[in-house]
Amino acid sequence: MLLKKTNIHDKLYREEFKNAEKGLISWVTGFINKSESENERILNNLASESPEDAVKFNFDLLQSDRIFHEKSIKKICVDYRLRFLDSRYFKGTFPQEALSEISRLENEHEISLKGFKIMAPSKMFVLSKTDDPLLFAPMGNGYYYLIHKWGNDLHPLRKWMMWPFKNFENLIFTILLSSVVATLLVPDGLFTREQDFSQDVMVFFFMFKSIAAVVLFYGFALGKNFNTAIWRCQYDKAQ
């Protein structure tokens, strides 16, 4: 026969596939629209001012290695010259992964997350940078839950580079040490034919005053402050 027999099973499969394809397109469209509205809601929460109320997490679903106390956060912020501020002060962009993690936690714990905190370098609260920001949610009693981390890791020597700015004592020690090094770099006989200890002391004091003057000018002119003073301050311009 010239006409091929009709395979009812094949016809039924094709019809089901067409319906499933339409349903899939409809589901994807609805999912995208829902995701966009969900992202918009989360971004509004991140950008809005909200009280730092403890979020009622289901502790059985939390990861213990993501729970941090404020004392630990402060120690890291002071050591690496970071800030721990409300997410509304953050000038960077929130990646989709962070928004998805917030949505997942809200659905899993049946809660609405607010009162977000960001731990990041000072520049990220002034300019759009991507240097290792961490997003937290408050848990109460000084504890915070790490939601997401993104961006670039900090420079491996940042802790030591920021050590002089940790407090006043560290700054004075750094100026003294720099003055000693600068004095040692001055060749003998530069000022007199035979340089003795008293002249070395005079050179040291000259170097100390010069370096201290530069540091003071830099600090006052640019509104700098010590790490211990800026880690929770959104008004200071220090970087």
Walk me through this protein's architecture.
- The chain has 239 residues and is of the alpha+beta class.
- The protein has helices spanning 8-47, 70-80, 96-109, 158-161, 168-185, 197-221, 227-230; strands at residues 67-69, 82-86, 117-121, 134-140, 143-149.
- The protein contains seven helices and five strands; from the N terminus they run αβαβαβββαααα.
Secondary-structure element pattern, one letter each: HEHEHEEEHHHH
- Mean of pLDDT: 78
Distance between the termini: 85 Å
Question: Nearest-angstrom radius of gyration?
Answer: 30 Å
Describe the largest sheet: 5 strands, antiparallel
Beta-strand percentage?
A: 5-15%
What overall form do the CA principal axes indicate? elongated
Strand order of the largest sheet: 1-5-4-3-2
Structural class: alpha+beta
User: Would you report the number of β strands?
Assistant: 5
Portion in helices: 40-55%
Number of helices: 7
Indicate the low-confidence ranges by residue numbers: none
Write a concise keyword list for the protein shown above.
single chain; 239 residues; alpha+beta; 5-stranded antiparallel β-sheet; 7 helices; 5 strands; 11% strand; elongated
Element layout with pairings:
Elements: H1 8-47, E1 67-69, H2 70-80, E2 82-86, H3 96-109, E3 117-121, E4 134-140, E5 143-149, H4 158-161, H5 168-185, H6 197-221, H7 227-230
Antiparallel strand pairs: 1-5, 2-3, 3-4, 4-5
Helix pairs in contact: 1-3, 5-6
Question: Can you describe this structure in just a few lines?
Answer:
By secondary structure, the chain is of the alpha+beta class.
